[in-house]
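Tutorial sheet, problem 5. The two components below are modelled jointly, 740 residues in total.
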Amino acid sequence: MKKKTVSRFFSAVLTGVMVLSLTACGNSAGSGTETGSESVAAGESTGQEAEDSSGDKIVLDVINYHVGTDYAAEYYTYLFEAFQQTEEGKNVEFHFEEIPTTDAFNQKIKLLISSGDLPDIVFNGGNNITELAARSGKVADLTPYFEEDPEWKALFDETSLEFNTVDGKIYGVPVSKEISYIYYNKELFAQAGIEAPEVSYATWEEFFEACDKLKAAGIIPVGMDTADSGWLTNLWMSALIGTDGEAGNTWMNSMYPTDFNTPEVEAAAETIQRMFQEYTTADAVGGKYDPMATHFFNGEVAMFPNGPWMIPDFSETEKAPEGFYDKVGIMLMPGKGMEMVPTPGDMVGASEEEKIRAAVAFLKFETKPENQIKALEMTGLQPVSNDLEIPSELTQSDPLMAQVLEIQNQAEVTYGQNQAYWYQNTIDTFSTELPELAYGNITPGEFCEKLSESAKKNQE
Amino acid sequence: MKKTPQGIIYAAKTAKYIFMLFFTLIAVAPILWAGISSFKTYAEINSSALSFPSSFRLDNYRAAFQYAPIARYFCNSVIIVGLSVLVTVALVAMCAYIISRFRFKLKTLIVLLISASLMLPAQAISQPLFAIFQKLHIFDTKLGLIIVYSAMGIPMSFFVMVSYYKTISTALEESAYIDGASFLQTFGYIILPLAKPGLVTIALLQFINTWNEFYFALMLTSGDSARTVPIALNYYMGTFANNYSALFAAVVMTVLPTIILFIVLQKQVVESLTAGAVKG
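Model answer (structure tokens):
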């Protein structure tokens, strides 16, 4: 009897849940949410309701990956809100879909490119999205909008626009530049009796002499990794190739290379193997960025390659000990080398002229000199424009960031890095084969051969 | 008969408990590790994965709610996964019984079609599904995901159940028919109770697979109304800014209720699993 009552109770509950949730399903297509992944900025209503209630308002769909713990989440929240306060943005409402992480974002954007359902503003998460979107014909040609506003066009150098051009048409608006160099721990250098160079070591030999001195003082010289695309090792390897004469520099500035068995790349792979075996932490093989960064924050590693987006972490006490910011110095890669790549720019997926104009207005707002500076201050994103006036307060409030802006002008050699220029499967091969190289299971020549093989698969 | 010495009995018992303890530790350690890590700072997690936290910080739990709509996504997961399990079990229980017991035209073709759906990679069907769901107005709805998850779970569950039904003797059904039971009565009162272990197995498989599913939950939704826990966990993995402390807190909060549910229901699960062994 009791058993029957229990069964009836559960059946009733289950039926209730099913009916309730299916009712919810029916409503959910048109309803939005108050927080999280779908919302309308500066409005009470969402989705279809937003369009209905907004009257003259232009509703722009945006898929935003700068959410959650993303380094630029706060900045983009500011940017969307600030745009709506401007003359051009006062009639614009945003309808957001949030997709955390660029990997997930890229997966979804690729699907939307093929289905033709791109949002009105298409943020660019890399991964060759620009070319794919341009060739699909689903994004707007922005060349006429650049031509009708020469002042806006003048904010970008030729390389940045070229990077976002497909078949002679500009499809992306670059919003920043990516640069990287070496952070070093001044305290550890002093402990080893080394004086850090003002700009960079003149040669790699001098750099490794300093590594030997650090090692002799019981300090681990460099941070490296292999997991998650091997970001840090990629920066060392790109620098080794990019500063190896004209041939190396040309190679490291080429898009989608397929021949990795060149003397410069093989020599770089050999040096990387030596760095793994002699100059880095035991957990570098198999390690990923975060634990390696913690080694640097904790003063266990003397030199760490990375870009300016890392600077806010130095003063974040959750990550680094208090006062760590003051211990950090900056130098370029040996031979005054610096990784510098234009970034793939944001695109416009809208098809109606009115929406295209509104989306372009937002992209213009995003690249306004004031907002480039704001992005630099809030996120470490490097301005895409070359001759911006950097506010003098920055030297006081963030001397390291000011030093980055100063030191990058002294770079004599610039080059790309694999995550920007290589095929995706080659980047994966780089990451999976690095442990084999580090342990000496394969020779540098074999390592390069594997990279060549995977790159060539893209041309078959 | 020679009596086994007391020492050997104790040794065997001790060995048994050590053996059980070892496997319990293997199973529990990752959950414990996530639980402990949920109280650690970013620096503590990255400095030493196995250390204890310097203090039990509840801030990480607050941060977990701050960065992602975790509670809402959890509720979505419970509804979507729960209903997809029910749908899968209900359909497979009937379909697999017919296939395992009866001969009819096109039976091979039906089995072949179900097997073929096992071979389809998610990426290959995501775009057609995206287009169809938009046409049917079930894009970004729980119903859409319930349909996809049920469809994905049916092939594997179907083969498990077909094999299971084959282990049940047909003599039982024949006896029921002789006693005047109808087809539905035989299926409902004789076969289904005996098939409980198989049904519990496919329910568990379906639950685990769909609870962790990420790809379709991302592709076939655009808002909070139907997104599930695996997407919420991505909110803590931002570019150059992972928040492992909040991530572990979120993992604990989303895993704990399901573990508690399994603990509460374990008697029923074990009973169901062992029932067939006796009766079958």
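Marking note: Chain A touches chain B through 51 residues (CB under 8 Å). Full credit if you identified this.
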